[in-house]
Amino acid sequence: MFFLATNRDHDLVENELPESEWVRRAAAGDEDAFVLLASRYRDRVWNTASRFARGRAELEDLTQDLFLKIWKGLPGYRDDAPFEHWVMRVAVRGCYDFLRKNRKRREREILHDGSADHSAGDPSSHRKREQREAWEIVHCLLSRLDAKDRTVVTLLDLEERSVREVAELTGWSESNVKVRAHRARKKMRRIYDSLEPDIEAS
Amino acid sequence: MNDPLDWDELWIRARTSRPHGEPRSTGFATRLHASLRSEDSSFCDAIANWSLGFSCASIPLLVALAAVLYVQHGAGVPAGFDDLVWHWSEFLPSHH
Lengths: 202, 96
Description:
heterodimer; A: mainly alpha; Rna Polymerase Sigma Factor, Chain: A; 10 helices; about 75% helix; B: mainly alpha
């Protein structure tokens, strides 16, 4: 009874307080406030990170790491930009760092690598299978790019963000983003064309 | 050459794919709390790492200091060094 009442009170407080108050508390070291904020942004961070991770286990680790980065960076957050923008900026830069650290391993990735997690997809669904196959091809193409190019293409072409947004999230100039995207797309297309017989065979 | 999958279609499908599914609906808060706690406890690890780094960084300085002393005093032991050793050896426990 007491537990239920406590939960209800907590929900009331959660709804009453503005987000900025939770941010302020989290920045001051309140773990509960931070976990509440993290729960709100979990899906957005998860979706972005899922474009960079190879399997579900890796994605879960990456998501946790990103939230730890956000936690550590919170004292430096200035509310001159919406909190969501700041969270996504930290997350995207964390994903970029993740790519850089795992560069050597990713260079060894091959098309349809066996480590991919197939359990998440429903094998009976033709549409899901098509999406899954497309994802694996794109993931393979992306793995041939360097970390910066891959980050740019992922955000532009998979996350469907604008050049301006990508520039803000990464901290790179808009012209840099455009040039990288153009070069990376050309390179990916070239690789895709050379892979066509393999894809057809598979 | 036949196009097995149209380039644009490839990206549309990849975009709509959720290759790793949705996040688990339970346990997120618990795992995050645990991660935050392990981050706190790693403060000691940070001190230990800093200490190790400091020690390693000191080695070249000690070597340089030894070289300077060697050059200043020639091949011999610096004057007063043996007195210093005797002085401190008196504090060692004796078996007598």
